[in-house]
Design brief:
With about 220 residues, the chain is of the alpha+beta class. It contains seven helices and five strands; from the N terminus they run H-H-E-H-E-H-H-E-E-E-H-H. A hairpin with a 6-residue loop joins strand 3 and strand 4. The protein starts with 7 loop residues before the first helix and ends in an 8-residue tail after the last helix. Bound molecules: zinc ion (2 copies). One zinc ion (ZN) binds next to helix 2.
């Protein structure tokens, strides 16, 4: 996490013991130990980031999943808070080394088009790529439990700091420290890797749509 804002590990550390802090941590304290390992990992990630920023033979993007926003967004209306709304994600691709503009002040907006204009308006150079219905796939979890159980070491998400996905391969490579040692894992069921299909489109449920229309149509009149 490059920005390191609102980080749970740091927050836990800050709150756990008034006598333990950044300058004065305890060697015997579990939370202090965990926090130091966390900071060590973050430092290495930032070093990697700067290393990438120095390279000029390749185009390297930094990807950041920003706030999850509920649409329509007007928190001042109770009807909106209590209705299951649409969840939208704003994923940014920024060339490494460039300052990233994070959308922090969002006004109220009613529909997806409003959201798009708000994001577009954050900077002149922001190009917004909106996704269409056909871009949403109904992903099925094709993990092979059998393959996973046989893996040594067993991969855990909290131990993974770097992954590599290569076109044409169904395997995933990962590093658990930034030491250049990659584990190559093959975890998909062979049924899928032999017959690769992602042709199902995923939408929202009819009930959710009906609830939004029923509860919010009064306020959204011009947007439906
Ligand atoms: Zn942290
Ligand atoms: Zn401590």
């Amino acid at each position: 996490m490059i920005g390191h804002e609102e980080c749970e590990s740091c927050e836990e550390f800050n709150l756990h013991n008034p006598d333990h802090n950044k300058e004065n941590f305890s060697k015997d304290c579990n939370i202090c130990g965990k926090w130091r390992a966390h900071i060590e990992k973050a430092k290495k990630a930032i070093d990697k980031y700067h290393e990438d920023a120095e390279k000029d033979d390749k185009v390297i993007y930094c990807v950041d999943l920003e706030k999850v926003i509920m649409i329509p967004r007007w928190e001042m209306f109770k009807s909106a808070i209590f209705t299951h709304r649409l969840m939208v994600y704003n994923e940014s691709f920024v060339p490494v080394g460039k300052k990233q503009k994070i959308v922090t002040h969002l006004n109220k907006f009613y529909d997806f088009q409003d959201f798009v204009s708000t994001v577009k308006g954050t900077s002149k150079t922001t190009e917004v790529l909106t996704m269409e219905l056909s871009n949403f796939h109904k992903w099925v979890f094709y993990l092979s439990q059998y393959k996973l159980n046989k893996m040594v070491p067993r991969p855990y998400i909290h131990n993974i700091v770097h992954i590599k996905i290569e076109q044409g391969s169904f395997n995933m490579k990962y590093e658990s420290d930034y030491d250049g040692e990659f584990f190559d894992i093959n975890f998909l069921s062979s049924k899928v890797t032999k017959n690769n299909r992602h042709d199902l489109v995923n939408g929202i449920s009819a009930l959710k749509k009906e609830n939004i229309m029923k509860n919010l149509s009064g306020v959204m009149k011009n947007h439906l």
